[in-house]
Amino acid sequence: MLNRFSSRQRQALRLGWRFIRPYRTQALLALLALIVTAAITLSMGQGIRLLVDQGFMTQSPHLLNQSIGLFLLLVLALAIGTFSRFYLVSWIGERCVADIRQQVFDHLVYLHPGFFESNRSSEIQSRLTADTTLLQSVIGSSLSLFLRNALMVLGGIVLLFVTNPKLTSIVVLALPLVLAPILIFGRRVRNLSRQSQDRVADVGSYVAETLGQIKTVQAYNHQSSDQQRFGATVEAAFEVARKRILQRAWLITLVIVLVLGAVGVMLWVGGMDVIAGRISGGELAAFVFYSLIVGSAFGTLSEVIGELQRAAGAGERIAELLAARSEIVAPADLQRSAPRVSGRVELQDIRFAYPSRPTPPAIDGLKLTVEPGETLALVGPSGAGKSTLFDLLLRFYDPQQGRILLDGQDISCLDPQDLRRHFALVAQNPALFFGTVEDNIRYGRADATAEQVEAAARSAHAHEFILQLPKGYQTHLGDAGLGLSGGQRQRLAIARALLVDAPILLLDEATSALDAQSEHLIQQALPTLMSGRTTLVIAHRLATVQHADRIAVIDQGRLVAIGTHRQLIAQSPLYARLAALQFNNVTEM
Known about the structure:
This protein is α/β, with parallel strands linked by helices.
C-alpha cells in the first residue's frame, strides 16, 4: 500500500514539475526573490541586536539613527522582494493551472466514448475545476510559503547557533518532538485529503445529475428523496473533511505547544544569563527574534504541509485523467482515405460486446453490405443492436471480431478523425450546445458562410421557426437547446448534418421527435437530402422507411432478413409482426 501510494505521490510531483518546467526563468526569479526576502527577514535579528546594544544601551542618538536607518533600508528591500516573489509565484500558479486545464480538456475530448461510460462526466468536471483550483492555490501560494518557511527554519537555526550555542541546544532538542507529529499526522492528513476530494466530487456529480434532469425530478415529485440522498452525500463529504480538519488541528496545536514551550524555556535560561552578565540584552533580543521566527515558521510549515497533502491528492486525480489512454487511436501503419468516398460500406462477420456488458454480444456475426447512394433502413426490436452499428461505423468502438470496410479500406487502418469526416450523424436525442442557432448549425463545418447555413436550415424546414426567434439565427440557445421543442431541436440537428455534406448520412430515429406536420415536411425533403448519399436509417416507425431501397431486420445483434418492404412482409415473420402491430394501430386510430 505504501509503495503504491508513494508511486502515486511521485506521479503527482512529476505532473507539477512538467507544467512548471516551461516557466523555469520565472520560477528561478521567484526563488531568488524568496531567498532574498528570507535573508532580509533573518538579518533583521542582527538589526534588533544593534538597535538594543548600540542604540538603546549606549544612549547615543547618532548610533540610534544609524540603527534605525539600517532597519528601514531592510524594510524597503523586504517590501520590494516580497512584491516580486508574490507576483511571480502567483503568476506561475495561474499560468500552470490554465495549462493543466487546457491539456486535460484536450486529452479528454479525444478519449473514446467507452471511457465516459465508466467515468461520470460530472466527476471528471469536478477534477477539471475544483482540483485544479486547489492546485492553483498550492502552486501560487502554499508552495511559496513552504519554501520560504523552510528557509526561515534552516537559516534561523544557523543564526541561533551563531548567536548563542547554549540556548540553541534547547531549541534543537525540541525539534524531534516537533517533527514526529508532523510525520505521523501528515500521513493521516494525506489519506484523508484524497478521500475528501473524492467526496466533494460526489457532491458536484449529484448536483449536476439532478439539476440536469430537473423536469423529470419535479414531474415525479422526487425532490424530497433527492434532498435526503444529497444530504447524505453532503454529510459524507463533511465527515471526511471533519476528520481531516481534526488531524490538522492536532498537528498545529502540538507544534505550537512544543515550539513555544521550548522558546519559553529558552527565555528563562537566557534571562538568567542576562542577569548574570554572561550575554548582552541585544543578544537575547536577537535570539528571541530568531526563536520566534523559527517557531512561527514551524507552525506555518505544519499548516502548509496539510495543504500540500491536499494538493497531492488533487494532483493524483488530475494525473489519473491524463494517464487514461483512448482505446481508439490511429494505427502505426496509417492509411488515408480518399478526399470524398463513394460511400460503400461492408460489414464482415462483425461480433461486438460492450466492455461493461460482455454478454450477450450486442452484435453477433453480422454481415451486411451497403452500396454507394443506397438508402438502407435498420429495423428491429429495442436493444437489437441498431444504434451499436452506428457506434461501430463511427469507430467509437472496435469490434472484437470481423472488419468494417469503407470503400474497401478497413476503417481500423484509418485515423478516426479522417474516418468520421465522411459521416453526418443525426441522433435520436439531438445534441445542441450553448451558443447561437447559427453556431449550432455550423458545428460540423466552421468555415460555412451565412448563406450556406440558411440553405441547410431551409432544406431541414427550420428556417421559418428560426426567423420567429427573438434574434433569428443569432438567438442564443440554453444548455442542450433549452427553450426549443423536440421537433425544433431535431430540425436544427438535421440542418447541421446537411451542412457537413458528408457522403454517408446516419439517421438514428431522426424524425421521432417531430410533430406530424414537421415529419411530413421532412419526409418530403428526404429524397432530395439523400440524393447522392449512402444513407442508413434507424427507425421504429416502419411507415417512415417503407420506401427505402432495402430494409435490414436486426434481432439480438444478428441480421435475420433483408429486402424491400413488400418482400419482408412476405418473408420475415418478425418484420410482418412489427408491421401488423404498427399499421393495424394506425388503421384503428
